[in-house]
Design goal:
By secondary structure, the chain is mainly alpha-helical. The protein has helices at about 5-15, 25-30, 35-40, 50-65, 85-110, 130-155.
Length: about 160
């Protein structure tokens, strides 16, 4: 199997359809979630919605680089989103999240394997491989938070 296909499938596992590492994924946790649960604050923790938007922010920013654009995402803006105020807004966000995640996976698997070792946007950011793997790891980190917050909010 091509390395880019393997890493793309690892990304799909965490966001769209896998259960191998965490026994769940973002789509499983968020697809049928009521927006009021997604925006419920618990003490000083980020909400489920904010964590999902945060991960999407990075996916979208990396997609732009994959398509030849500039790396314009900044950590200081990665939690700066308008509040979700309805189920329709939540569903619209999720649709974009799933779409952009699949695009990330497709763009990854279409890369030649050699590109994984190329500099990502600027040499100071490491290689494409390092950035894709960091996106996967970052996603698992926040998925764990989402699962715990969801259990607290829904009292499961």
């Amino acid at each position: 199997m091509k390395n880019t296909l393997e890493i793309a499938n690892r990304f799909r596992e965490i966001i769209l359809n896998g259960t191998w590492v965490a026994n769940t994924n973002y789509k499983d946790q968020l697809a049928n979630l009521d927006w009021k649960i997604a925006i419920t604050p618990i003490k000083n923790l980020n909400t489920i919605a904010l964590l999902a938007q945060h991960i999407h922010y990075y996916i979208n920013g990396i997609n732009i680089v994959f398509k030849g654009g500039n790396l314009d995402i900044k950590d200081k803006y990665s939690f700066d989103f308008s509040p979700i105020e309805s189920q329709e807004e939540w569903e619209t966000f999720l649709h974009k999240f799933w779409h952009d995640s699949e695009e990330f996976a497709v763009l990854t698997e279409q890369m030649p394997d050699e590109k994984l070792e190329a500099a990502f946007a600027d040499e100071k950011y490491g290689t494409y491989k390092r950035n894709i793997e960091a996106m996967i790891e970052h996603s698992y980190y926040h998925l764990g938070q989402i699962v715990l917050i969801k259990k607290i909010v829904t009292d499961q």
